[in-house]
């Protein structure tokens, strides 16, 4: 077990160019035959401004399948329901919600052509997509979706996830902050931020693996979802590892521009592996069931590689890394004791509440 002190002292050199080469638009065209079908849409300046703006307001034109005045809530099979087609009833309904409300309503943005491109891409990809930007997907924001997944069927689903994600904010504001050649005031490479819409495939966490490659040599493999025990992984360990090794050797190594990288794959079945994504080889990427210190040791070890890790029993299951994102930041700060002023305010509230009760 690597101590926290040893891990904090560990550092893998990672350059801005390494991060840029792992951006989805940089590699997709070369590997599109071995990964999920995707459509790339450059982000207009208006949408980038929207992502940086506080608050969450969705465009009126970006939704479908919701109530609108034009259809008076008529759904399939409801044609004979007179109540749903009663215009007077609908006017009363709208009046009830609007009476006595003095709250200021934020102006809904309008993305025009960009919104149309997103709708068209979703339709082209079968009506269901998985969104991400250059590097990250908004998986930390899945809690805000109705079905707690990243499946999107309309632009508003996409915008909601992107606006609610800290991972997306990191992509936009701090993509190079852990690079050794990053200087805060230095001129950074010009970036074209891109919305990536990938054809939705029902996820199967039991078949997803993260692979660590150094000098085009696979040194470590682990299951991506450490929150559950999958007995079949242990049973089929040798087959899984053999297929992944062959896939990386034949389809990835020597073809990807980087020699050190992290690649995520899906082992669909014996002899069939597909590419999910590339990530930089460094602390900016979650090492999951390894630590970066351990991976550094594997680079110099003579023993047979790659090292394979998976959850080997129910006792080895780890808690979800994304559960805390569903809690307000103030609650997280209080629980962690990171903001004494918030704690003092909280104690004052408790004191005043008790005084009022007495």
- Average pLDDT, rounded to a whole number, is 81
Largest sheet: 5 strands, mixed
Order of helices and strands: HHHEHHHEHHEEEHHEEHEHH
How would the global form be characterised?
Answer: globular
Uncertain residue ranges: 1-9, 65-85
- Structural category is alpha+beta
Number of strands: 8
Terminal Cα span:
53 Å
Strand order of the largest sheet: 7-6-4-5-8
Query: Tally the helices: what do you get?
Result: 13
The helical percent reads 25-40%
What oligomeric state best describes the polypeptide chains here? Answer: single chain
The Cα radius of gyration reads: 24 Å
Q: How much β-strand is present in the residues?
A: 5-15%
Please provide a written account of the structure:
The protein has 358 residues and is α+β, with helices and mostly antiparallel strands. The chain has 13 helices and eight strands. The chain has helices at residues 4-9, 16-21, 24-31, 45-52, 87-98, 113-124, 155-163, 166-173, 231-235, 237-252, 292-300, 329-336, 340-357, and strands at residues 38-42, 129-132, 194-199, 208-214, 217-223, 261-269, 272-280, 307-309. The strands form two sheets. The protein has a five-stranded mixed β-sheet, sandwiched between helices. Mean pLDDT is 81; it is low at 1-9 and 65-85. Belongs to the CDC123 family. It comes from Biomphalaria glabrata (Bloodfluke planorb). Pfam families: D123. This is Cell division cycle protein 123 homolog isoform X2.
């Amino acid at each position: 077990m690597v101590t926290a002190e040893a891990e904090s002292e560990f550092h893998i050199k990672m350059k801005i160019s390494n991060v840029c080469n792992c951006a989805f638009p940089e590699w997709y065209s070369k590997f599109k035959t071995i990964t999920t079908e995707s459509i790339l849409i450059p982000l207009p300046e208006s949408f980038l401004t929207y992502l940086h703006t506080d608050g969450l307001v969705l465009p009126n034109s970006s939704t479908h399948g919701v109530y609108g005045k034009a259809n008076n809530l008529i759904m399939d099979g409801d044609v004979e329901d007179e109540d749903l087609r009663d215009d007077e009833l609908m006017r009363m309904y709208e009046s009830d919600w609007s009476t006595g409300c003095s709250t200021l309503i934020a102006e809904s943005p309008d993305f025009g052509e960009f919104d149309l491109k997103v709708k068209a891409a979703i339709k082209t990809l079968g009506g269901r997509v998985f969104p991400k930007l250059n590097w990250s997907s908004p998986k930390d924001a899945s809690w805000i979706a109705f079905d707690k997944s990243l499946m999107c069927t309309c632009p508003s689903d996409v915008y909601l996830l992107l606006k609610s994600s800290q991972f997306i904010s990191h992509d936009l504001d701090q993509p190079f902050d852990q690079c050794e050649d990053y200087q805060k005031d230095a001129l950074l490479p010009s970036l074209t931020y891109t919305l990536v819409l990938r054809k939705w495939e029902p996820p199967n966490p039991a078949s997803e693996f993260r692979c660590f490659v150094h000098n085009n040599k696979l040194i470590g493999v682990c299951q991506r979802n450490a929150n559950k025990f999958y007995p079949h992984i242990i049973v089929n360990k040798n087959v899984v590892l053999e297929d992944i090794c062959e896939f990386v050797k034949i389809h990835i190594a020597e073809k990807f521009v980087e020699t050190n990288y992290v690649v995520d794959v899906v082992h669909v079945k014996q002899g069939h592996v597909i590419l999910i994504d590339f990530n930089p080889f460094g602390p900016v990427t979650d090492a999951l069931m390894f630590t970066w210190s351990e991976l550094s040791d594997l680079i110099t070890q003579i023993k047979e590689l790659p090292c394979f890790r998976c959850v080997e029993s129910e006792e080895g299951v780890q808690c979800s890394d994304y559960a805390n994102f569903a809690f307000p930041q103030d609650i997280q700060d209080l629980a962690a004791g990171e903001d004494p002023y918030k704690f003092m305010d909280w104690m004052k509230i408790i004191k005043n509440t008790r005084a009022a009760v007495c």
